[in-house]
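Subject: sequence -> structure tokens, single chain

Hey, anyone have a minute? Need the predicted structure for the following. Not urgent.
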Amino acid sequence: EQLHSIRVLRAVLAQEAHTPHDLAVAALMHDCGKARYPLSVYGKSIAVAVEKLVPPFYRYANQMDPAQTVWARPFIVRAQHPVWSAEVLREAGASIGAVWLAEHHQEIVAMWMDHPQAGSLWRLQRADDTN
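Reply:
Had a minute. Here:
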């Protein structure tokens, strides 16, 4: 996860001459919520595959309690980590913009085209998807 976050930050910095501070913080910390329930590479891969191939099962599994349902934990972490990352950033005193970017980094950018952070969200997602 740490190497991924560093790669995302580097990709964001390489996209344009100027990178807003909020975007740089979000790029580095967007997945920190995954630390709440660390997963194996296998668990992460399964969650991504199931989300793409069997969306109804993915939605069912990610609604469970991660503390009580070990088998569903990869799905829950995949679905909930943006909110958990935002909580960590908020508690650490990060800016509202960085918190917002972390919280929304897996959402469809088109939903937020009128938001002032839409451009930064697009840059973050592009960097995240390629790393």
